[in-house]
Amino acid sequence: MKEYTEQGFPQELRTVQLPGGRYMRIIDDFVYVDSDKKVHSAPSGYEYNGGNVPRWLWPLIGSPFTGKARRGFPIHDVECGKAHKAPTLQERWAMREAADKTLLDVCKYEGVSLWRRRLIYRGIRLGACTVLFQEVPNPPPTLSAPPIPCNAAQPHHAKDEAHPAEETPAE
Questions:
Q1: Phi and psi dihedrals of 26, rounded to 5?
Q2: Residue 131 in this model has a pLDDT that exceeds 60
Q3: Per-residue pLDDT at 132 exceeds 70
Q4: C-alpha angle 48/53/56, rounded to 5°?
Q5: Those residues with Cβ within 8 angstroms of residue 32's Cβ, 6 or more apart along the chain or in another chain
Q6: Alpha-carbon distance 136 to 40, whole Å?
Q7: Do β-strands 39-42 and 15-17 pair in parallel, antiparallel, or remain unpaired?
Q8: Which band of pLDDT confidence, cut at 50, 70 and 90, is reported for residue 160?
Q9: What is the DSSP letter of 8?
Q10: What distance separates the 2 farthest-apart alpha carbons in the chain?
Q11: Are the C-beta atoms of residues 83 and 99 closer than 8 Å to each other?
């Protein structure tokens, strides 16, 4: 693996837009070295959608495919993809948070204004909450069941004394 000593992008991001305009494909391997000198990469051929930023938000924060923050989104999307494959909810959450912080680091490096960085970060952190409601392949032992969305009704397990359960016939 190549050794990098400075924060930044050792090469330019080269992409091609896919039909429909919502996805881009990376042409050449792409690398970002963060402020802690950690290397983040996105492989050639990877298709990304720019962090699921809704189009209605683009006028405020900019398109994820143009502007100063554009080089951070492919790295962010690759890392989010890895996070979604993590075996436990805790690992998913930690990896997603790290991906979001990497995008924030890119935005700062690229000179994105403070108010725009904050808006981008809050938007992607809000998106991270969806990780909690996706099925976890191997739930951690501390969870007896997958998380239930806040608006979902909790099952009632206590026996209702007014309507006792019917007895099942013995076989």
A1: -80, 130
A2: no
A3: no
A4: 135
A5: 8, 9, 39, 40, 41, 71, 72, 75, 102, 106
A6: 25
A7: unpaired
A8: very low
A9: B
A10: 74
A11: yes
Query: How large is the C-alpha radius of gyration of the chain?
Result: 21
Q: What is the residue whose two structure tokens read 């969305």?
A: 149
Percent of the chain's residues with pLDDT above 90: 40
Q: Do 152 and 100 touch, CB atoms closer than 8 A? A: no
Instruction: Decide: helix, strand or coil at residue 156.
Output: coil
pLDDT over 80 at 82, yes or no: yes
Calculate the alpha carbon distances from 80 to 10, 86, 116, 128, 157 in Å: 22, 10, 21, 9, 36
The neighbouring-strand residues paired with 47 are: 25
The secondary structure of 58-113, three-state, reads HHHHCCCCCCCCCCHHHHHHHHHHHHHCCCCHHHHHHHHHHHHHHHHHHHHHCCCC
Reported residue count of the chain is 171
d(CA 44, CA 78): 11
